[in-house]
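Weekly puzzle thread! Below is a chain. First person to post its structure in token form gets bragging rights.
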Amino acid sequence: MKTLLAVMVMAMASAGIARAQPSVTVPRADAPDPATDPGFVVIDQTNARSGGGLEMSYIGLDSSLGDNAPTLLRFAGNARYVDPALGLGGYVRVPFAYARSSSGGMSDTVTDVGNIEIGGIYSPRFDQRGTGVILRAGITLPTGESGDEALVGTLASFAAFPDLYNAMPRATTLKLGVSPVFRAGVMFARLDVGLDWNIDAKDAVLGKVLHFDAGLGADFAPFSVMFESANATVFSDRMGGSASTADVLGISARYTSAQVSPYLAVVIPLDKDISEVMSVAVTAGAQFRL
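Winning reply:
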């Protein structure tokens, strides 16, 4: 009997010690990853999911430009691969702009292939559910055009502030970004802090752009809605390093399925300098998963 009691006491003590051990939380395999889907549209689209996509934006020009205001469209293609275990990968983005104007029975078109952007992505894996970060480092290749083509590309990029410097004429620009991401239940959020540092361009003022963006969304799978704020402060290397800030607000929606994720966004200018040129922009696109 004494031996049995001793064994029971030892077993209870062992159970108590086991209960006192701190628990290790292992994320469920099906837990939503805030570094992947659903994904925002107007702010930085770079995330930790492999795939590719295409999008088109219609830029509505201000009515003060008259009836002869050109039709302005922007296109962009992207592809990325991120190793799901390491969170390490790369990406490429290609912007394209198109403008068409008519006057006196004549029409004229201008097209601009912007600077192709290539770069790397790192999204470290966290044990804590609902928290993540996306690090991005890229460079634009000097493939963009000069003159009217570069102007058309710059105006079109008002619909996509993260690509603002991708339309500079034959420009080489370093692009760095860090994006904390969060998820709690159906709500998800993202903050972007980025720096575009132009180091070479043809017939353009060199400078830097500081990006500070924020997005908040609700995921009612498979549908999600997002509110996005994109803000860019441009520092010119001339005129004593003067700075100007522009801001836009985006309202977007996305449908997410196993293979494709179409989306739609409306971009509204909040800054007077932008609103004097652009009244509104509408973006439609789709992201395909690998």
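Puzzle host: Confirmed. Bonus trivia for everyone else. The radius of gyration is 24 Å.
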